């Protein structure tokens, strides 16, 4: 028996934008869209289709904040999306995060934003704030879907992937994600981030830029990231294999549950 939804994914009508930084991160998602058609805008391929009858526009943002902001703007201006979901991988920074865990962002910060002494470190100039919150209802819907998937990871990934990556008890976390135009891959960098942002859970390179664009346009935004490494010197997991066998499949499974319950 399916558990009843406790949160409405969104009250906005219109297409949903699904964004991932790399093709591999969205491979399983695109495989599910039965009627996708490609449209190229701004050097990017946008896949238009439906998921459980809901309009969807899926796109690869490419890597980095500028690329992500360009992509989010095109989704809103050209395709008229009414909500944006970002999915993919991130490095775990917070205590207790392990490879294979998921993080649903409650807010984003640009860890490399520093316009001091004109503005405090991390504060977005002329915004009067450093952190941008995600949409509460949209994030709650993603959280519900993610919890259901993590309750039985083998169902989404297959037993071989669970064994290979030791994903026997993956957990879901909610909180701050930091974005920056630098790949964090050493223990020293991770420690510096934790010192500057004590409550940060994960680090990646796109989400805060999408959050800023969605804030400017008033478009609901939520993000789900699978932890692929600990963003330190021990980050030696087979990255592309992890994305293919774990992160991409997790994304597809979570979004499948999300769209099953979405009411436009």
N-to-C order of helices and strands: EHEEEHEEEHHHEHEHEH
Shape: globular
What's the gyration radius in Å? 17 Å
- SSE class: alpha/beta
Number of strands: 10
Percent range for β-strand residues: 25-35%
Mean of the pLDDT scores?
Answer: 87
Oligomer: single chain
Unreliable residue stretches? 1-12
What fraction, in percent, of the residue positions are helical?
25-40%
Question: Please, could you describe this protein's structure?
Answer:
It is a single chain. The protein is 35% helix and 26% strand. It has a five-stranded mixed beta barrel with strand order 5-9-8-6-10, surrounded by four helices. With 264 residues, it is an alpha/beta fold. It is built from eight helices and ten strands. It is globular. Helix 2 packs parallel to helix 7 (207-217) and helix 3 (136-150) crosses helix 8.
Which structural traits does this protein have?
five-stranded mixed beta barrel; 26% strand; 264 residues; alpha/beta
Secondary structure: elements and pairs:
Layout lengths: L15 E5 L2 H10 L4 E5 L2 E8 L2 E7 L4 H13 L5 E10 L9 E9 L20 E3 L2 H15 L2 H5 L1 H6 L7 E8 L7 H10 L3 E5 L2 H11 L3 E9 L9 H23 L3
Parallel strand pairs: 1-4, 1-5, 5-10, 6-8, 8-9
Antiparallel strand pairs: 2-3, 3-4, 5-9, 6-7, 6-10
């Amino acid at each position: 028996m399916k558990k009843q939804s406790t949160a409405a994914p969104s009250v906005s009508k219109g297409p949903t934008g699904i964004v991932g930084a790399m093709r591999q991160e969205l491979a399983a998602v695109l495989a599910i869209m039965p009627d996708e058609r490609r449209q190229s805008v701004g050097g990017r391929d946008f896949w238009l289709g439906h998921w459980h009858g809901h309009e969807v526009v899926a796109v690869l943002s490419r890597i980095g904040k500028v690329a992500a902001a360009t992509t989010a703007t095109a989704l809103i201006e050209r395709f008229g999306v009414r909500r944006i979901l970002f999915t993919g991988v991130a490095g775990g920074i917070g205590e207790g995060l392990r490879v294979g865990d998921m993080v649903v962002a409650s807010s984003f910060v640009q860890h490399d934003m520093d316009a001091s002494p004109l503005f405090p470190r991390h504060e977005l100039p002329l915004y009067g704030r450093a952190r941008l919150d995600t949409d509460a209802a949209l994030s709650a819907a993603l959280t519900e879907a993610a919890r259901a998937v993590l309750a039985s990871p083998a169902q989404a990934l297959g037993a071989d992937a669970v064994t290979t990556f030791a994903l026997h008890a993956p957990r879901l976390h909610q909180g701050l994600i930091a974005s920056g135009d630098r790949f964090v891959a050493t223990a020293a960098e991770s420690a510096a981030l934790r010192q500057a942002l004590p409550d940060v859970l994960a680090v990646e390179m796109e989400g805060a830029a999408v959050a800023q664009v969605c804030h400017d346009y008033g478009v609901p935004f939520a993000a789900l990231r699978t932890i692929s490494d600990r963003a330190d010197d021990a980050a030696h997991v087979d990255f592309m294999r992890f994305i293919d066998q774990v992160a991409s499949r997790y994304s597809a499974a979570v979004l499948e549950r999300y769209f099953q319950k979405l009411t436009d």
